[in-house]
Amino acid sequence: FAEGRLDAKDEGRYASKKKPVLQKSMLDGRMVDRYESISEAARRTGADKSETSKCCKGISKAAHGFRWSYE
């Protein structure tokens, strides 16, 4: 790197984009569990990351039999 130029990592381009995610019951909306990210929720529940993300963004109502939202 040239002198005075920061590494991309130092500029924050690779900063974590994790958002905590809440898994909620379809019946009453009560929180079932909390995950540090959609990826963690997918690993632990088998839910599809893309569908869970759509649910968190309000594009779809449910994914993998649950409601999902960002904390």
Main features:
23% helix, 2 helices, 3-stranded antiparallel beta sheet, 71 residues, alpha+beta
Question: Can you describe this structure?
Answer:
With 71 residues, the protein is α+β, with helices and mostly antiparallel strands. Helices cover 23% and strands 18% of the residues. The protein contains two helices and three strands. The protein has a three-stranded antiparallel β-sheet with strand order 2-1-3. A hairpin with a 6-residue loop joins strand 1 (21-24) and strand 2. The longest helix has 8 residues, at 38-45.
Quick summary:
By secondary structure, this protein is an alpha+beta fold. The chain is 23% helix and 18% strand.
Give the helix/strand layout.
Layout: E1 21-24, E2 31-35, H1 38-45, H2 49-56, E3 67-70
Antiparallel strand pairs: 1-2, 1-3
